[in-house]
Every structure is written in structure tokens, then in C-alpha cells.
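ARCHIVE CARD
Drawer: 12
Card no.: 0347
Subject: one protein chain, sequence and derived structure
Cross-reference: see card 0346
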Amino acid sequence: MSTPHPLDRGIPPSWASEWGEDRYGVFAGFTVGETSHRLRWIPPGRFWMGSPEGEAERWKDEGARHLVTLSQGFWLGEVPCTQALWQAVMGENPSRFRSPDRPVESVSWEDCQQFLEQLNARFPALSTRLPTEAEWEYACRAGTETSTYAGELEILGACNAPLLNGIAWYGGNSGVGYELEQGEDSSGWPEKQYPHTRAGTRPVRLKEPNAWGLYDTLGNVWEWCQDWFGDFAAEPAIDPPGPEQGSSRVIRGGSWRSVAGDVRAAARLWFSPGYRSGSVGFRLARGQAAPGQ
């Protein structure tokens, strides 16, 4: 469990165009054309995956809560993949809510695999992938055990949990001052934290990050994980890869149109690998590598 991070020797990864360390930890970035994207080093550790039975708005598929050990550190995107990065790699932008600094959305799990193939062809040493479901939840929690990394949610209405306003774009606040013409009509959404009539995704990094410097893990867009959907076992697990087969892939984190109860670290949804939605994107991951690799 004492795996050093890749910059311990002062040698940046070969794919990095920037690197360093700040109050959140170690980071390294890569550049495609004029677009840069930063990854954060997530240290190895263990955590309780899933939600306890008493958590507000808990769904049965969030249990059994079980202890998971991640034996190796890994890199994870500081923000969801942006439209600018997708455009730089793929040459087009499939998103419904268009602007370079917003998360790419309307991409299926299968689309993400094509993107990763293209990106890794440009940078073979980068070897990006989707995070496993366990990696995603571990990174989102950043050492916490509450329903969000900022604490437990007090849910006052379907789209009203005051704690979320500081950390996430969700159904209660995603339309406040919304500036894009292609926003979705939100006038009928129930019990909103703030009044709004048109909503959609928002630019990344506008809400507070977690303790490991990750932005928008909760809200803005759901994020595809590598795993097939399946039930959790109660037994402790080490580096769980998820089920060997299935029909649906997991998404995590909630989105701009989610009710408050879906914007929690343990909340799970699942869709077929070909599913696309204006509320679903993804975040890049990269497995542990030796210094300089």
C-alpha cells in the first residue's frame, strides 16, 4: 500500500506536457493540438464501497456495502472529458450543449472506446481507459464515508439539497443564469433549490473540488465506468474489475438534470453500451506506471 507516485524521483511521465504538485496532490497533463487536459494522481488505499442502509435516498443496488482495497495508484482526469478534448481527438463534437469548456456528452460507452483508441494511438505511452466503478467511487469519495465528499445530504425536496449547491450542478441549480439557447425546459422540475426555466451542462471547474482536486465528480454529467453492471458482494474485494459479462454498463455521479438523491458518491445507474444522452459523459483514467513511463 506504499506505492510511490510517479513524480517521486522528479521524473515526469513521458506523455506529460505539464506536471507538478499542489495542495491537492500530484498532477500531470497532456496536450492534443492546442487543448490541454490534466490528470490527478490517485494514491492506493481502501474504502467502503456502496452506501449504508440508513443513507438518505439509498437504492438497494448500492449494497451490500463492502470493503475494497485498491492496491495500486492510478491517474484520473481532474475534470470530465471536455468538448475541446473530444474535438481535438475526434475532429467533431456530438454534444447537445455546445461549448469547448463543457463536458462532452451524448457519447455512448462504445463511442468512448473509439475515442480512447484514437487518443492512445497518438500517445501510446498514455494508455488511457475508463475507470473501474471501484476506482471511480474511491476517487469521488477522496477519503470520506458520507453521501458526498462535502458531507451528508439534507434533502429538502426532490431537487433541493442545499449542500449540493457548492459542489455540483444538479436539477436544483443547473439552470440558474443559464446562457445557452439550446437549454432544456426546466420550468416543470419539482421542488428546485433555486428557480430556473432552462437548464443544461455547465463549464467544468465552477464548483468546489474534492480533497484530491477532482472537479464535477458529482453532477454536471453522469460518467461512464468500465464495468458491466452487477450486484455487489458483501465480501471484501481487492482491485475489483466488475462482472465478467452483462448487458449494461455503469454510470456514476449524477448530472445537471438529476434529483438530489442521485447526486451521491454511491448512486448507480446503468445503460446499454450504445446508449447516448445529453446528461452522460465520461472521465479519463490511466493505470499505474513506473516513473518516466
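Annotation on reverse: The longest helix spans residues 109-122. Confidence is low (pLDDT under 50) at residues 289-293.
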